[in-house]
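Aim 2, interim progress: modelling of the cytidine-5'-monophosphate-bound target.
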Amino acid sequence: MNYTFCLKAYAKINLGLKVLRQRADGYHDLESVMQQVSLADTLVFEPAAGRGCNFFCTDPRLSGHDNLVSRAAVLLQNKHGKKLPGVKITLYKNIPVEAGLAGGSADAAAALLGLNRFWQLALPKSELLEAGAELGSDVPFCLQGGTALAGGRGERLQELPPLPFFWAVIAIPENEAMSTAAAYNSFDKRKMGEPPLEPLVEAISKQDKQKITGWLARGFTNTLETAIEPRSSKLKGLKKRLANAGFSPVISGSGPAVFILTEQWRDARDAARAAEQEGSRAYLCWVTSGNKEW
Ligand code: C5P
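Predicted structure of the complex, ligand included:
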């Protein structure tokens, strides 16, 4: 009963991110409030001749065996037998790459969910989350979606109440990218343990929109911003342009994507225009709630 279907792979933003310490395995323990947004890639699953997974991407630079989608397929094949029916996965890429939006992790999460369905593996949520953590620190969150407080290296999740509705404008300076590893290598170690996330978690628990936006406007929301912001004049220009237009842009993850949240569509439109006038790419989307697959 193999059939063709498609899944969306949603991007994430970090409403706050605090790096706590470096670990012996090279990773960093962190605390982060993660939020899924409607900006998404699309993965199409269809039957193919032979066995295993053929993977294609609309962005040729991302095709191939290294892609987390291919690696998700190999991981499931190794665990559950190599004689699984042939599947072709096409990834229609939309989320900017190396932007701090977990685009690759979102694709890996969608691949795990889609292959679980296509190959009729019936793996429970716990096993998919475990497989996700093997592929990358953000993959478990991308599987779960919604709003969560992440711990460990990002893979330990505590679900938070869904964020109240906000438009999200995500903006990225043209031709800027930063790998996660580079950001963790170069952030300011003196800022480790900052910023405190408790007020943000409390504001979300109380569904207090004003306190949520107030927290985002506080300035320093993400330890990793110290890795990218001082090195990118384009990013500084983008943040300044948005601030001059009355918004409080915040860096997502390892950047260089920044986002603003607003209740008003007109404000969202104006923020997107301001970012584009600065020569950046802008995406107008909204915050979304958790995965309905389970
Ligand atoms: O887990 P993921 O493959 O996304 O991580 C990519 C790189 O980012 C890691 O190899 C590591 O250098 C860095 N990283 C880290 N601490 C984390 C997550 C990622 O140091 N919590």
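The chain is about 35% helix and 30% strand. Residues 26-28, 30, 136-138, 153-154, 180-181, 184 surround cytidine-5'-monophosphate (CB under 6 Å).
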